[in-house]
Amino acid sequence: MFRRAPKRGDNTKYYEILGVSKDASQDDLKKAYKKAAIKNHPDKGGDPEKFKELAQAYGVLSDPEKREIYDQYGEDALKEGMGGGGGVHDPFDIFQSFFGGSPFGGGGSRGRRQRRGEDVVHALKVSLEDLFLGTSKKLSLSRNVLCSKCNGKGSKSGASMKCAGCQGTGMKVSIRHLGPSMMQQMQHPCNECKGTGETINDKDRCPQCKGEKVVQEKKVLEVVVEKGMQNGQKITFPGEADEAPDTITGDIVFVLQQKEHPKFRRKGEDLFVEHTLSLAEALCDFQFVLTHLDGRQLLIKSNPGEVVKPDSYKAINDEGMPMYQKPFMKGNLYIHFTVDFPDSLNPGQVKELRGVLPAGPSTQLTDMELDECEETTLHDVNIEEEMRRKQQAQQEAYDEDEDMPGGAQRVQCPQQ
User: Which of 12, 179, 192, 252 could be bridged to 237 by S-S, CB 3.0 to 4.6 A?
Assistant: First the structure.
């Protein structure tokens, strides 16, 4: 099937807009565009329409294929789709390709200041040993990167057209009727352009990204956990999040989550460990081996003749957590002692203990004093469970009073 060549049209307009001759070289086109674009840039109070025309003219004449079509058939041929389509180039994108942004400082007059992409946050579980010794973990992540084939334009020609569905705003407004004379106005991203405000000709779509402007990339990041880092501390990889056109790439942030340790507890730079002694160990002496977080064996022992009281603490200096970025400085290791008392003693043991232990206050009573006393019986009790049971019983009694007809009557003092 043969396609009829278009009629010849005006093929001098773009050269006149740039102020160059038809045989101008690429360098001449660049110099002419840069000079005129700076003069007519909206940030300098220039004419926005003239600025747009300059970008359109340069976008065509700087492309050898499009320039040849334009020289032969004029602007109409490009609009009919020859040379990959004649979509309007974004004038600010072309300008930024020369200067990397506005050379006048600040954002553009039409609010084209680049927005910042969202950070990607991941939880990274670590053990207390990891935080004590330091470690590194290699993690494989997928992220979006700008398509290298079309430089994030989405099209082979770099051209795009304003979305007809949202008029280039990227947003649509819908009206929802809630009732008589009641309406709700809702704004949502345009489904035709996915909120980008622009569309790409199907024939001009980039074959690599299919017009999406980004492709997926797998990347391996090495996360270094330094000695002494804390639970909840963040490790940031700047500019490693998803890339998007006209967007400053966000960061990938790893938040440390310390797993619970079966033996040690951490508070800041200090470590705490629980240890239970028998009554004999608490009264006489004890020694035991504690395996530290780095695998070292610590010998823990009491001083001769020392008595360890229940619920007491003892400290070992410089055996706690290393301090962050000061790993040779450490906190303390605290040992919390509990004493395991025997459930009962036989009479012989009681006699031996009385002979060894210091005598307490005299508890011998005369027969007369005993006759005046009432004998009682002690029983074991879980005090927390006991108080909870009593509180529940009081609440039930209160609820019953509330349910009685007329409620409880108040007692008033008689009037004098």
Answer: 252
What is the secondary structure of 280-314 as a DSSP string? HHHHS--EEEEE-TTS-EEEEEPPTT--PPTTEEE
Q: Show the 3-state SS of 40-71.
A: HCHHHCCCHHHHHHHHHHHHHHCCHHHHHHHH
Burial 79-107 (b: 16+ CB within 10 A, else e): eeebbbbbbebbbbbbbbeeeebbeeeee
The answer to whether the beta carbons of residues 229 and 124 sit under 8 Å apart is no
The single-letter code of the amino acid at 185 is Q
Max Cα separation, the chain? 136
Kind plus residue range of the DSSP H or E element containing 172: strand 171-179
Residue ranges matching CATH 2.60.260.20 in the chain: 114-152+209-260, 264-340
**pLDDT tens profile 247-304:** 888 999 999 999 999 999 999 999 999 999 999 999 999 999 999 999 999 999 998 8
- Annotate 341-369 with DSSP letters as a single string: --S---HHHHHHHHHHSPP-S-----HHH
Go through 389-406 and write b for each residue having 16 or more CB atoms within 10 A of its CB, e for each that does not: eeeeeeeeeeeeeeeeee
Distance of CA 31 to the CA centre of its chain: 46
Helix (H) or strand (E) holding 29: helix 26-40
Question: pTM, whole model, 2 decimals?
Answer: 0.59
CATH code 1.10.287.110 for 13-111: yes
Is-contact 166 193, C-beta < 8 A? yes
Are 187 and 173 a contacting pair, CB within 8 Å?
yes
The topology under which CATH files domain 264-340 is: HSP40/DNAj peptide-binding domain (2.60.260)
* CA–CA distance, 251 with 238 (Å, rounded to integer): 4
For residue range 62-83, list pLDDT tens digits in order.
888 888 888 888 887 776 655 4
